[in-house]
Amino acid sequence: MAQTETEGPEKARTAEARTAEASRRTGLSRVAGALRSPVTFSVLAGVVIGALFLVGTGADPVTAYGAVISGSLGADGIGSTLSTTTSVLGMALALAIPLRAGLINLGGDGQLVLGGIAAAVTGLYSPLPAPLTVVLALLAGMAAGAGYAALAALCENHLGVPLLVSSLLLSYPASSLASYLVRYPLKEPGSSLPQTRQLPDGVALPAFGDTTVTVGLLLIVAAAAAYWFADSRTAVGYEIRMTGLNSRFAAYAGVERKGLTLRLMAVSGSLAGLVGAIGVLSFPYRFLDGALTAPGYTWTGLTAALLAAAGPLGTVLASFFFAVLEVGGLSMERTTEVPRELTQVLQAIVIVFLAARLTFPDKWLRRFRRKEAV
């Protein structure tokens, strides 16, 4: 009887030990899987090679990288980082959505500036009260971007022009049209700069305190959440993923390619137009020729989308990573006198390694597993 009473606790302890061991092995498998990811290897390789560049210039890598972190995430830099994240993440989402289906939209600049100029015109001439004018300007920017992106899709569907080519080439007339409008009919009287008049009082997105971060960040985060939900919880998201993985199989299963291309490009363009509208409705509250495209948000967003393989959560993290690099690069330049262009070199290195699909060698992972087993 006593033996039976002692067997129960011993079996329970054995079961608990087995559960703990299984959990530990599962954790190790996840860590090993993360290490084998080309994304992890690409980022770490970029950091290491960037450190070698810093050593070659005579700078201290630890000091330089510390300046990047403190300059972008410190009290003085977090506002600029979040403002930059708004634009980078918005463009990354705009380009990731069609990329998820294997479609490449290179017309982000054109859709961005058309969204911006549409928002500026709406804000300047709308007779509605200021809050309604802000909403109308955002919708106008999204509509302009969506329509122009849909035009690129129609060129592929009905004229046989590849989407990559049509979207890229359509950017140039859009940028030229916006430039003409702010230099002539919409130009601010008496100004030497190619810009529109400042938007009326109240026609602006609310800002958080004294920072440059506006409600636009919340709009972009909401768009990212909607993308995640649609991608992982809806049949449309499944169709998009399957089309990206194997377009022939998706077509055989009944996915209509032309209609899907048109819809995805319209959504993509609407997000790019939204980013342009947010830029105009934020400081300096006007459309300034080149101000939306000069920072290169389209290409940084495309880089983030490629790094994350167009996954929703990965796109958010990659966008924030590149925003930190962009803002922190300025602090690094002030602190170490290393040109901030080095951060662009880091982005290029990450993409090169990612394109090569390199991973950690298996022998390194086996060594890691042996150490953890001990």
What does this structure look like?
The two termini are 39 Å apart. Helix content is 75%, strand content 0%. The protein has 374 residues and is mainly α. The longest helix has 35 residues, at 2-36.
Cα-to-Cα separation, first versus last residue: 39 Å
What's the overall geometry? globular
Radius of gyration in whole Å, from Cα?
25 Å
Helix content: over 70%
Structural class designation = mainly alpha
Instruction: List segments where confidence is low: pLDDT < 50 over at least 5 consecutive residues.
Output: none
Q: What's the pLDDT, averaged over the residues?
A: 87
Number of helices: 15
Order of helices and strands: HHHHHHHHHHHHHHH
Tell me about the largest β-sheet: none
Number of strands: 0
Strand content: under 5%
Secondary-structure blueprint:
Elements: H1 2-36, H2 38-56, H3 61-73, H4 78-99, H5 108-125, H6 130-159, H7 163-183, H8 216-233, H9 235-245, H10 247-252, H11 257-280, H12 297-307, H13 312-336, H14 341-356, H15 362-373
Short overview:
With about 375 residues, the chain is mainly alpha-helical.
Descriptive terms for the model:
374 residues, mainly alpha, 15 helices, globular
